[in-house]
């Protein structure tokens, strides 16, 4: 994952794109990251370290303890849904509306169906 970050080193937006690409690559090799157990701040720190000092394994080292087996694409939306702050709403004082959450899940479902 760190190599993806160093190839296109931007935090805003790029991190979300990298996550989706990375999750697809992981699925193809039958594993996933249990994002619900990760910390957005720790992830961004590891991503920043990887961008500043590429190919040292900062991001991979951070994610390794959260690796789980996955064998069914139906599990994929749940994995993505476990990523705290993916939609950027974690910095908003009000809670997101159910309509906004539904839009986010619909986008994920569309991405999965195109595979």
UniProtKB/TrEMBL annotation:
Transmembrane segments: none
Domain of life per record: Bacteria
Domain Fido positions: 1-65
Record has Ribonucleoprotein as a keyword: no
GO function term, MF aspect, one: ATP binding
Catalysis: reaction(s): L-threonyl-[protein] + ATP = 3-O-(5'-adenylyl)-L-threonyl-[protein] + diphosphate; L-tyrosyl-[protein] + ATP = O-(5'-adenylyl)-L-tyrosyl-[protein] + diphosphate
Presence of the UniProt keyword DNA-binding in the record: no
One Gene Ontology biological process: regulation of cell division
Enzyme Commission numbers on file: 2.7.7.108
Record keywords, A-Z: ATP-binding, Nucleotide-binding, Nucleotidyltransferase, Transferase
Name of the protein: protein adenylyltransferase
Species in which this protein is naturally found: Pseudomonas fluorescens
